[in-house]
């Protein structure tokens, strides 16, 4: 890649990551405001039952940091505490923490440490004296008193504060239900602003990534086997694709993995994981754009198709190197293009796609495959590699489902025999091949329904018109780059 494209790719990845973070934060704020707000716009906690045989219940962990900016959110923050006594009147007050500590010094009271549904955790204070009635104190910043539900509202100020709930006559024994809420006039604008900024950064990042990775011109695409129409044979194919061949070709060739490198591949794969997070966000965005284009034109834009195929190819190489196959110790290249590597993926670019299938194939038609793949690949998992006497240990994540178990068996076989069982490798590659075919179908890259089969073997099965590999050739030799099968 040219330096300018490398710079664009790095900048795009950074913008995508920041954009997703801002968008997620903004969406969380807006959804939380809409879902948990009361009639006055306060975000409220659930209702908690609090009771004590002591004189008071306190919460002393309220601390607000001072800010010199007049527009700081803390200055726009309003707190609301709603307390309902089981019987009789109740006093609710908020005051500086030091004043509350002096007032209750030596007085039996329970301090709320945390609120866990349905109970609250308390720290009991030793009894030594009887307090004076709370209403007689002059240090309260805000207070309410009376029978029935009492609501204390307070505009936040910097400092260290404490909330006190007592009987007005300072007698022991208290049972109440309480709920806290917070409101800020800046909350919704901040959420909307973060969401808008996140979407703009995401769009800019995706545009930079596409600009950096998209190949220019049909000639470049022909040299990769990607971007071909369904009626043309990709470069290197022995003949035109037959109707019985899948447009998605996933190739994996066993490449002498070592005994123990798989123990540290999780660390070696960190750079790829960071890049792939941004690339898969780009993949989703481009798929949405392509879906709209297919819906109105029946065509998948070739430039977007090339980038998405490259992302799948990159993902397959990393998966093949990593814990989805452990098929090689050759480090995956940082490129979307075909390369001299034991794993490869190509997809024939369709000349036309069904407009109507765009609306149903990614969720309804692909549902049977999702159910099967949930069993084959699982939702993730881990196995204990080393465990200490206290039950703690280092866990190595190898995935879940049948695939995870097979890869774990292969890893143990490599560790003790330095050999990867051939039949096991074929099964592992077959499950991965099934998964990538379903991804390509759900991502609108083909209308051909994925077959319910593994297609065992490292290389894809060749069409009837393709020449056979010479006798004595490698067991898992891949088909020529770009061959649709």
UniProtKB/TrEMBL annotation:
Residues 220-240, 455-485 are annotated as: Disordered. This is DUF4389 domain-containing protein. It comes from the Bacteria. Pfam families: DUF4389 (PF14333). Residues 229-240, 468-478 have a biased composition (Low complexity). The lineage of its organism: Bacteria, Bacillati, Actinomycetota, Nitriliruptoria, Egicoccales. Keywords: Membrane, Transmembrane, Transmembrane helix. The chain crosses the membrane at residues 186-214, 266-296, 362-384, 396-418.
């Amino acid at each position: 890649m040219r330096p300018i494209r490398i710079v664009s790719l790095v900048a795009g990845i950074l913008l995508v990551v920041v954009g997703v973070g801002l968008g997620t934060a903004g969406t969380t704020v807006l959804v939380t405001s809409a879902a948990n707000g009361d009639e006055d716009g306060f975000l409220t906690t659930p209702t908690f039952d609090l009771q004590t045989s002591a004189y008071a219940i306190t919460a002393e962990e309220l601390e607000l940091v001072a800010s010199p900016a007049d527009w700081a959110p803390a200055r726009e923050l309003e707190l609301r505490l709603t307390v309902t006594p089981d019987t009789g009147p109740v006093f609710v007050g908020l005051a500086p923490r030091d004043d509350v500590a002096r007032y209750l010094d030596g007085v039996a009271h329970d301090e709320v440490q945390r609120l866990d549904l349905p109970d609250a955790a308390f720290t009991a204070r030793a009894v030594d004296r009887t307090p004076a009635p709370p209403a007689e104190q002059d240090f309260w910043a805000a207070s309410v008193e009376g029978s029935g539900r009492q609501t204390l509202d307070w505009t936040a100020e910097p400092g260290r504060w404490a909330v006190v709930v007592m009987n007005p006559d300072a007698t022991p024994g208290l049972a109440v239900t309480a709920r806290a809420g917070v409101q800020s006039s800046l909350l919704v604008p901040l959420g909307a602003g973060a969401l808008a900024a996140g979407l703009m950064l995401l769009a800019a990042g995706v545009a930079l990534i596409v600009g950096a990775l998209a190949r220019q011109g049909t000639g470049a695409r022909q040299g990769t086997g990607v971007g071909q129409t369904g009626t043309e044979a990709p470069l290197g194919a022995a003949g035109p694709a037959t109707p019985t061949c899948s447009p998605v070709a996933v190739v994996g060739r066993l490449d002498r993995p070592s005994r123990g490198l798989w123990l540290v591949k999780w660390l070696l794969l960190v750079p790829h994981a960071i890049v792939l997070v941004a690339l898969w966000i780009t993949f989703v965005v481009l798929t949405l754009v392509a879906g709209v284009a297919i819906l109105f034109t029946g065509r998948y834009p070739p430039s977007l198709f090339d980038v998405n195929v490259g992302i799948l190819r990159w993902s397959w190489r990393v998966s093949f190197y990593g814990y989805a196959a452990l098929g090689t110790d050759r480090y995956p290249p940082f490129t979307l293009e075909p390369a001299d590597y034991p794993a490869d993926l190509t997809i024939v670019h369709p000349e036309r796609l069904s407009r109507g299938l765009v609306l149903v194939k990614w969720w309804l038609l692909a549902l049977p495959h999702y159910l099967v793949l949930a069993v084959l690949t699982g939702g993730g998992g881990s196995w204990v590699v080393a465990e200490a006497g206290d039950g703690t240990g280092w866990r190595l994540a190898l995935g879940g489902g049948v695939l995870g178990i097979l890869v774990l068996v292969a890893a143990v076989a490599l560790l003790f025999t330095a050999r990867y069982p051939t039949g096991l490798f074929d099964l592992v590659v077959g499950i991965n091949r099934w998964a990538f075919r379903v991804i390509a179908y759900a991502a609108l890259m083909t209308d051909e329904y994925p077959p319910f089969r593994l297609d065992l073997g490292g290389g894809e099965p060749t069409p009837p018109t393709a020449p056979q590999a010479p006798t004595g050739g490698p067991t898992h030799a891949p088909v020529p780059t770009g061959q649709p099968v």
